[in-house]
Specification:
It contains 10 helices and 7 strands. With 253 residues, the chain is of the alpha/beta class. Helix 6 links the parallel strand 4 and strand 5.
């Protein structure tokens, strides 16, 4: 658990609505030491031009619901858990357009980057400024490890590493489910990090209720609620009504 410091916040960097809640669930509250918890989605901004182009049948994979609908799901999940919720209004990688109004990422596969952090793109200066403007000096940040290499997760991780704030990390569901422990350890080494993990016991019913608020993504990625819950139960190692949230630190917690 973090030391008591109620005037500070825990700001969880979520590449998209769903990433933070699916990955960390109700485990943030017992860990935060009385701090306000804020879910901050980075790539959840409106993208009218990208949405218009994504209506073509061959582009439907880009968007199962609108950014506005996903932000509404995020607000409902945050309310279930008693967290705050905000976003930086950057565009989802699947909907980003280049200067010629073409998609920056031509295919689903191109959204996923090489595992070598040196090859990851740098965040746009406007996004860096927006994040710095949102954070307070004493905020504690919890950021993704970029498991799976989705470009938006990689950008979020890079942003976090450049902050002066104290930063903790989480492994992202569902990507982490596809990795062995050996692969995860290799990824952490490639990031240049030496991490210690802590498991926090928390409420499985609350985690489940909040996670199911992201209905659009449950259906898009898992097809059924049952399949989603089976995978989520494995991720948070459910025992009865208790789940376990894992948070990584570069020092002892």
């Amino acid at each position: 658990m973090l030391a008591e410091a109620p005037r500070d916040r825990v700001v969880v960097l979520s590449p998209h609505p769903d990433d933070a809640v699916w990955s960390l669930g109700s485990g943030l509250a017992p860990w935060a030491g009385g701090r306000e918890i804020v879910l901050l989605s980075l790539f959840a901004g409106d993208a009218p031009a990208g949405l218009a182009r994504a209506r073509a049948p061959e582009q439907r994979w880009r968007c199962f619901s609108t950014p506005g609908q996903r932000r509404a799901e995020d607000r409902r999940a945050a309310a279930v858990l008693g967290y705050g919720c905000s976003n930086l209004e950057a565009t989802d990688g699947a909907l980003r357009l280049d200067q010629n109004a073409g998609f920056v990422h031509a295919s689903l596969q191109s959204l996923f980057l090489d595992s070598a952090p040196a090859s990851w793109p740098a965040p746009q200066p406007a996004l860096v400024a927006a994040l710095q403007g949102f954070l307070r000096p004493q905020d504690v940040v919890c950021a993704p490890l970029a498991i799976g290499g989705h470009v938006d997760h990689c950008l979020t991780h890079r942003l976090a590493r450049e902050l002066p704030n104290r930063v903790y990390f989480y492994s992202e569901f569902p990507y982490a489910e596809q990795w062995s422990q050996q692969a995860l350890q290799g990824h952490v080494r490639a990031l240049g990090l030496q991490l210690q993990a802590r498991d926090i016991a928390c409420s499985w019913p609350a985690w489940r209720e909040a996670a199911l608020c992201y209905r659009s993504q449950v259906l898009m990625l898992f097809a059924t609620q049952g399949r989603f819950l089976q995978a989520l139960q494995r991720h948070c190692r459910v025992q009865g009504d208790t789940a376990f949230c894992r948070i990584w630190s570069t020092r002892a917690m």
